[in-house]
Amino acid sequence: MVTYMEQNTIKKEVRFRGKALQTGRVVNAVCTPAGPDTGIVFKRTDLSDEPAACLSDAVFSSGHARRSTIGAGAASVQTVEHFLAALWALEIDNMLVEIDGAELPALDGSAMGFYEPLKETGTEPQGRPRRFIKIPEPERVEEGGCSLSVFPDEAFSVSYLIDHDVASIGREVFSIRPDRDSFEKEIAPARTYCLKREAEALLRAGLGQGADLENTLVMDDDGPVGTSLRFSNEPVRHKVLDLIGDLYMLGRPVIGRFVAEKSGHSLNGKMVKRIYEKYVAGR
Ligand SMILES: [Zn+2]
């Protein structure tokens, strides 16, 4: 059952600054409170006409290589997923995010760098009901041996399986019905990862220019290069974090039981589009 809950914004301004994961450029993001029914609005202050994109308006275009992008054309902002997962956990519905670049800062590669300052600042209820998407029938998207399904349920939950041909990861499964506390303890600290054999190819493709051994787990057979794991199954927890963030591109929480088998941003994006077209567009 969905009980009445109010929309929330943040109590005051919160700033983030750091290297962007893919481009390596230092970016600043300034988050400020916004009125009820505004949504999460990203504004690119580095561009002359400061184009803006609002989350619930089908501006998502998840599916680029290894990160999720919202917005269209000049107004786009990429690598939004860890930030959006923090907003999901803190139940933030309305906020202006002014950013002076095309990508959010990587911070430590997890959601903690966004979650903690926003939590500390606190949220303000706004006297209007939150809008949810309650999934009424099963949906499934798949590609290349990977799949993502959702089934009707009374709460949001995720069960995720990854299977990498690297001794330190292999097959990992993680299931959670996350709330704010369990998100903070079990999901938010899990960092971005890649396989060591992929790392050079990613750099050659111009991705991961801001990656370092602290904000990205470079996994080889023995474990992460140059750092240690925060959880024995940190990679699969990070995939749950990515899915939570990708789903919040819809601008409102989804209620349903998600089952992911080796899904990633591309497949997550297909599911987001499916849910948007069926349950959000024109409503
Ligand atoms: Zn991620």
Summarize this, please?
This protein has six helices and 19 strands.
Under CATH, the topology of the domain at 6-131 can be stated as Ribosomal Protein S5, domain 2
CA-CA gap between termini: 21 Å
Order of helix and strand elements from N to C terminus: EEEEEEEHEHEEEEEEHEHEEHEEH
- What is the CATH homologous superfamily assignment of the domain at 6-131? lpxc deacetylase, domain 1
User: How many beta-strand elements?
Assistant: 19
Describe the global form.
globular
- Spatially, the strands of the biggest sheet line up as 2-3-8-4-5
Low-confidence stretches: none
Structural class: alpha+beta
Question: Beta fraction of the residues?
Answer: 25-35%
Gyration radius, in Å: 18 Å
Range of helix content:
10-25%
CATH hierarchy: architecture of the domain at 6-131: 2-Layer Sandwich
Largest sheet geometry: 5 strands, mixed
Count the helices. How many?
Answer: 6
* CATH class membership of the domain at 6-131: Alpha Beta
Overall mean pLDDT:
91
Bound molecules: zinc ion
Note down, in words, how this protein is organized:
The protein is of the alpha+beta class and 283 residues long. The chain has a domain at 6-131: Ribosomal Protein S5, domain 2. 23% of the residues lie in helices and 31% in strands. The chain has a 5-stranded mixed beta sheet, with helices on one face. A hairpin with a 2-residue loop joins strand 16 and strand 17. Helix 1 runs parallel beside helix 2 (112-121), helix 1 packs across helix 5 and helix 5 (234-247) runs parallel beside helix 6 (265-279). The protein is globular, with a radius of gyration of 18 Å. Residues 81-82, 192, 238, 242 line the site of zinc ion (ZN). Zinc ion (ZN) is lined by residues 81-82, 192, 238, 242.
